[in-house]
Amino acid sequence: MANNSIPTAYDPLVQLLEDAADGAHTHGSAIGLVHNNETAIRADLIALVGKPAAGGSPAVPGFKSLWNAAQTNKSAKTAALRTAQSNARVYVRTCIRSLFPVLGESWSADWNAAGFTGGSLAVPANPLTLLQQMRAYYVANPARESVVQGIQCNAATCEATAQGISDAESASNQSNTDAATAQKKYLDGMTAARDRLTGLRNELTQLIAADDDRWYAFGFDKPSDPSTPEIPANLIAMAGAASTKLVIAHWDDARRADSYRFRAVTKADGKEALNVIVADSQTSQSFPHLAAGVVLQLTVSARNSAGESPASDVVEFTVP
């Protein structure tokens, strides 16, 4: 028996919502659908995927696109912070060299006044507080401000560089908050959609028979269907270029299929030439061990956790 489990991943969940809304539009009134009608289903769908601009109304972004945008912004703001910190480290090292003539080329107690209180001239990964201390040093010692290859080693530039890091940190922190908020809304939207589809499935169970073909219109299998997948239909095989020994095959998606077995045997003696598992309803395979002109018999079967369907109708293929 098909169990009509509700998808957890975004793509199949949205596809099922689309199918369910269409089914409710076509059959909802006839079967007496009340609690999970087209309006309710489309509201959950639009919340996830958004709504394009129409009739003068602006587009409404969905939870998924908002989360995608928030993740992109988070990555950009994190990169901007890293860049600000990296540039600041280069700046600090330049100013360190400018102070060698007065403070020495290696750490000593004299460097404490410039903010290097840790016993070395190492520049930390985030030099924000060091820049603030260097700014204070230049304020107290304006004669030691200098220009090194166009770089201003002075109190004002230390302050501006520190402020650049601070601004980048604030933007990065806010982007983290925004991403977390967007993710929660997305996950809540996914939960609401799954709850809606679960309710629809349960309501349909009360309204139509287990073998009613209208289950398909809502995107579900008939509960009376077997758990194993349908047999794939319409297998088509096309040859690659001459001498490539390549076959390009595709077939219709089979209901309940998670993967497919694509198999080839030689027509002359029935020896297996290929037996592969593929994720999608198309594949390209080569037969380098076979001579051009060999005729193969191709089949495909559908697979899921409950088992495997019988093989499709045979399609003959000549190795190019």
- Point out poorly predicted stretches: none
Reported by name, the CATH topology of the domain at 236-318 is Immunoglobulin-like
Which percent range describes the beta-strand content? 15-25%
Overall mean pLDDT:
95
Question: So how many helices?
Answer: 7
Number of strands: 12
* Rg, nearest Å: 33 Å
User: What is the H/E order?
Assistant: HHEEHHHEEHHEEEEEEEE
**Helical percentage:** 40-55%
What structural category characterises the helix and strand content? alpha+beta
Short description:
This protein is α+β, with helices and mostly antiparallel strands. It is 45% helix and 17% strand.
Keywords:
about 45% helix; elongated; alpha+beta; about 325 residues; 12 strands; three-stranded antiparallel β-sheet
What does this entry look like structurally?
It contains seven helices and twelve strands. It has a domain at 236-318: Immunoglobulin-like, CATH 2.60.40. It has 320 residues and is of the alpha+beta class.
Write the layout of secondary structure elements.
Layout (H helix, E strand, L loop, with lengths): L9 H22 L6 H12 E2 L8 E2 L1 H36 L1 H4 L24 H13 L5 E3 L2 E3 L1 H53 L6 H4 L18 E4 L6 E5 L8 E8 L5 E7 L3 E5 L8 E10 L2 E2 L6 E4 L2
Antiparallel strand pairs: 1-2, 3-4, 5-6, 6-9, 7-8, 7-10, 10-11, 10-12
Helix pairs in contact: 1-2, 1-6, 2-6, 3-6, 5-6
